[in-house]
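Reviewer 2 asked us to include a model.

Predict the structure of this chain.
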Amino acid sequence: MINYTERVTDLMHDIIMRVPSLSYIDPSRLLVFARYGRAGAEGAFATCHCLTLPPTEPGYYYWRDRETGRITRRSEWFVVKCPSVEIAATPIDYLISFTLPRFCNQTLERSRKEEYYRGVESWVAKLDTIVHELYHIDPDANGIRTVERRDGECSSLAHGPTFLLNVSSMVKQYLRSNPDPERYDFLRYNFTDLSHRFDGVVATTFRTFPSFPQRYMEALPAPPGEADHGQDHGKVEPIKSPNRPRHYTEADLCIRQFFDDPSAGARGASSGTRSTLRLQTAVFDERAVAAACERSRPKILSDGARG
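Predicted model (structure tokens):
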């Protein structure tokens, strides 16, 4: 079997080492994991999730009567916080998730990035996405990198021509640095080919799959004086925050197999997994999976030569 997130993590370390523009990134503070993403469906191929954003200012939601404009009800006061993740006692600042099998089937054809890679093999689209997510990490440790939009405003959601051009330049710089092809050869194959070639694709996920660490709302007591005027705002609705952990460690990770065919049976799937996803993924004994992945792992020597 091939452990896809392990291969991506190894490739990211090599990219950070070889591309000076990304050398500010500490790979020990990154965690790569997989999410389910149906092949052929619209949606993200990968996402960079920041865990160092500060709590928001206290606030609340409210509902107004359309005719009178009077507030008829509101939520409790709350703040939005980031969960914490620690792996082997090392705090994780960023999570980078990849949607399988969708990411594996990504190509340059008819994509926004195609114009930056004329005459380049189509699998480079996946390498571009990996560099793209690394580039989202802010060099000033302020969360997600902000990029200037066409209107002059800055946004962490912008993916304008300058952003895409910078990413493609770093991808080409990496390939010109003569990396060992064993680092990135797995990107040449789509999900079906990987499954056949390695007898299965596994990846790191959270045990709460399909859930993963996300920002959450935490209820607060009403500020001084607010309780005296609460009746003016009508009924107070309690905050309904999903029942997810607020702190994660390596004990919350597991190895899960992903499937290309939705009709495939999920051998060993956990009983807590939603039935619609039970068909595409399966949880396995991690020691057995590690042994299987070790047999397919490329032998890369320290000087970059292949063994």
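Confidence is low (pLDDT under 50) at residues 265-280, 299-307. The longest helix spans residues 161-176. We have added this to the supplementary material.
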